[in-house]
């Protein structure tokens, strides 16, 4: 039965706002004796004129409880990896101890650095499974991908967030399937739980189904999987958690969450019906306010993943100068720029535009790469401008620094550069792209206008939300306080929406939550 068309709220607006804030209590929708005026009360269940009751609501219950059980967490909330160690071990430990899941930003680091971080995390979080590291796909350095997987398996990392993959690689499949076995009840258990972050349904397909037989066979033939592991891998999806990444900082396809998440959820449901193995789906990208987090859960996300907003956290591994710049970003202060790891492919990532010229300078480098056969083919005026405004040194000197880097990292790159002038140009240009993020991390004052700061519009929304609150103070911005406030606010917004769907006239203020210090 539909509500009366002329129904009005009988409770003062302040009572409705208060009811939304008290979401951990029962809420009761009531009418006047004539059944035409709707109101809301909290506390004991009214004996008369009761339309319906809402049970208590908790931030812990906003997502999928199965996700929390699978990962040993209290909240369906993940602090996603940020490359070059910006998601520090300190950040991961804080998240784990607060009953959430955090990932160390391994992308861009040497295997030895990743191993040191994993060792530190293992010692700080003994017996815990709610932490992990990032495995990023880098088509130009497949050996590095394999080495990171070696660290993961050797050190017993319990969780891995796989990002930027466009297809399954031997390394990511080995990571997901190594250690598969049957428990006493005949259920397949995993040594490593893989969370695949993606932004395209066709990529989701690859992680939602078992790994291809040919790929598994090649891993067995190389001695990287056992016959039993390959046999079990053919029965389960590559990933049991798929994170749908919408418009986010860093690597992104700029997809709207409201379009992408339902598409992947429907795809997941189809594969679950086919294979019978459950897969959890999370949401990432654009989550900088409680309303955005609530919307992600309302769309059906089992968990949420935040990224850009955590760069302003106390524990984030970027300089105070970079954090100040990030704290001034508004929703339109972002731009797309070439990515260092996929420069030759023309892949772009989302960065801050306010206070830095990185996006414009990086775009200039890609245009020069696209239009010329090598450094020797650059017009003199172009070379002079790049040396003066971007590199601040002769290109020959940049090449010497670049050559020294790759001599240790991957000598094959130098061999290719000797044969291919365009590849040499790409490596030289990538020197700037790679160092620009490191300058932001170290806070190099001479390179402030070159800082590469990964973020999307969500950070601008976050800055607007926290303005004037206790979270506006840098020292109060711990990653856990950010998380708890986003979840608390999402619960308020969810309760306000529940009341509205029950016919109560809900004022806009009911869904608004201001950050407070939470335990």
Automatic annotation (TrEMBL):
One Pfam family from the record: FabD_helical_ins
[Acyl-carrier-protein] S-malonyltransferase-like inserted helical domain span: 372-451
Protein name (record): PfaD family protein
């Amino acid at each position: 039965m539909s509500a009366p068309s002329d129904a009005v709220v009988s409770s003062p607006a302040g009572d409705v706002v208060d009811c939304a804030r008290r979401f951990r209590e029962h809420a009761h929708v009531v009418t006047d004796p004539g059944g035409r005026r709707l109101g809301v009360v909290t506390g004991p269940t009214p004996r008369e004129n009761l339309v319906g009751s809402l049970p208590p609501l908790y931030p812990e219950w906003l997502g999928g409880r199965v996700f929390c059980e699978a990962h040993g967490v209290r909240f369906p909330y993940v602090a996603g990896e940020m490359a070059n160690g910006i998601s520090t071990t300190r950040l991961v430990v804080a998240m784990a101890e607060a009953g959430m899941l955090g990932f160390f930003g391994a992308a861009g680091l040497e295997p030895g650095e990743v191993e040191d971080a994993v060792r530190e995390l293992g010692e700080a979080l003994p017996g815990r499974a709610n932490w992990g590291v990032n495995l990023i796909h880098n088509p130009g350095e497949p050996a590095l991908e394999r080495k990171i997987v070696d660290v993961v398996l050797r050190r017993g990392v319990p969780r891995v967030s796989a990002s930027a993959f466009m297809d399954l690689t031997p390394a990511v499949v080995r990571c997901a399937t190594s250690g598969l076995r049957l428990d006493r009840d005949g259920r397949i258990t995993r040594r490593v739980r893989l969370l695949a972050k993606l932004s395209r349904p066709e990529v989701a397909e690859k992680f939602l189904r078992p790994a291809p037989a040919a790929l598994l066979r090649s891993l067995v033939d190389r001695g990287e999987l056992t016959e039993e592991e390959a046999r079990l891998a053919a029965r389960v999806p590559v990933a049991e958690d798929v994170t749908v990444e919408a418009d986010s900082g860093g690597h992104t396809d700029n997809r709207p969450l409201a379009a992408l998440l339902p598409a992947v959820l429907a795809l997941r449901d189809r594969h679950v019906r086919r294979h019978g193995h459950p897969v959890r789906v999370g949401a990432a990208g654009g989550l900088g306010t409680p309303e955005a987090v609530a919307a992600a859960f309302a769309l059906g996300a089992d968990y949420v993943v935040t990224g850009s907003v955590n760069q302003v956290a106390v524990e984030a591994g970027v300089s105070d100068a970079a954090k100040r710049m990030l704290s001034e970003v508004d929703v339109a202060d972002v731009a797309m720029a070439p990515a260092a790891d996929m420069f030759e492919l023309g892949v772009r990532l989302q960065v801050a535009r306010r206070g830095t010229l990185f996006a414009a300078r990086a775009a200039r480098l890609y245009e020069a790469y696209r239009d010329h056969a090598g450094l020797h083919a650059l017009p003199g005026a172009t070379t002079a401008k790049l040396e003066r405004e971007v590199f601040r040194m002769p290109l020959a000197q940049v090449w010497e620094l670049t050559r020294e880097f790759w001599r240790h990292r991957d000598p094959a790159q130098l061999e290719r550069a000797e044969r291919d002038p365009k590849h040499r140009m790409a490596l030289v240009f990538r020197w700037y792209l790679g160092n620009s993020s490191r300058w932001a991390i170290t806070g190099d004052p001479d390179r402030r206008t070159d800082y590469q700061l990964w973020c999307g519009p969500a950070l601008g929304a976050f800055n607007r939300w926290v303005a004037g609150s206790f979270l506006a103070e840098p020292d109060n911005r711990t990653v856990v306080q950010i998380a708890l406030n986003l979840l608390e606010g999402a619960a308020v917004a969810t309760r306000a929406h529940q009341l509205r769907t029950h016919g109560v006239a809900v004022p806009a203020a009911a869904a608004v939550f201001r950050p407070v210090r939470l335990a």
